Amino acid sequence: MGAPQAEALTAYPWYRGKEQPLPRAAAVERLQRGADCLREGLSAASAEFCMARLELLEAAEFSREVTAFDNKAHALGGRVAALMRELWERFGTEGLWLTVDKQGGRNDYGQFLLANFYGCALTRHCQGAERSRYTLRNGARRMTVTFEPRADAHHLPVALASMFSKYARELMVEMLNDFWLQRVPGLRPTAGYLPDGERFLEEIEPARQAENIPLELLRRCR
Questions:
Q1: Is 103 among the domain residues?
Q2: 143: nearest Cα among 109, 93, 106
């Protein structure tokens, strides 16, 4: 997570000045054994873990971007493109193979790629419901990108990305619950999903107004 994202989180009182010590539950020794096992498996496949990066999009920022684009897929696509461009800049000269979970229900990602990788030559290999695959080239850089539904079930990097994202979400929801539990006695924690999220918002409403916390920090526009 980069500095601009960390700065944006200071607008949310439940994150401000807070840190989550890791690991949360598993013993360090157990994690080390798991890491060693993963490292050995990757080595056997002539692969290695290089990096992990999160793009956090909280409620107010999500709503602003969706309103600006008037399209949820475009707003989220911009975050995906930012991650792809970082990989392109860091590893493009080595030749990249990316698998990305499908963004919405579309099959054609050609214009999306050309708009976010200006000046690149694009080759379309296939476009369909099962997968859409493209290769981008620019000088010494080359990247083949496959958009595939339920990619986390078939590709380890996508599965790891999903796990990182869900873990980060759980930590953030924990901080949200801790903040409001201190202000609303007897409040039941929420996981943040509908319809329980609506119940949670209703129960904290008097405290929210007393704290003068904007509702847009808690509720997305869609």
A1: no
A2: 93
- pLDDT, tens digit (0-9, with 9 covering 90-100), for 82-114: 999 999 999 999 999 999 998 777 899 999 999
Residue 123 lies in a domain: no
pLDDT, position 105: 79
Q: For residues 112 and 70, what is the distance between their CA atoms, to the nearest angstrom?
A: 16
Q: Is 134 helix (H, G, I), strand (E, B) or coil?
A: strand
Return d(Cα 126, Cα 132) in angstroms, integer.
Answer: 5
With pLDDT > 90 as the criterion, what percentage of the chain qualifies?
Answer: 76
pTM (2 d.p.) = 0.87
Structure tokens of 171? 């930590």
Spatial separation of the C-alpha atoms in residues 87 and 34, rounded to whole Å: 26
Task: Collect the ranges in the chain with pLDDT lower than 50.
Answer: none
The full DSSP string for 140-202 is: TEEEEEEEETTGGGT-HHHHHHHHHHHHHHHHHHHHHHHHHHTTSTTPPP--S-TTHHHHHHH
In a domain, 50, yes or no: yes
Considering the domain boundaries, does residue 120 fall inside one? no
Question: To the nearest 5 percent, what fractions of the chain are helix, strand and coil?
Answer: 50, 15, 35
**Total domains present in the chain:** 1
Residue-number span of the structural domain to which 35 is assigned: 1-92+156-222
Residue 115: which H helix or E strand, with range?
helix 110-116
Q: How far apart are CA 124 and CA 94, in angstroms?
A: 21
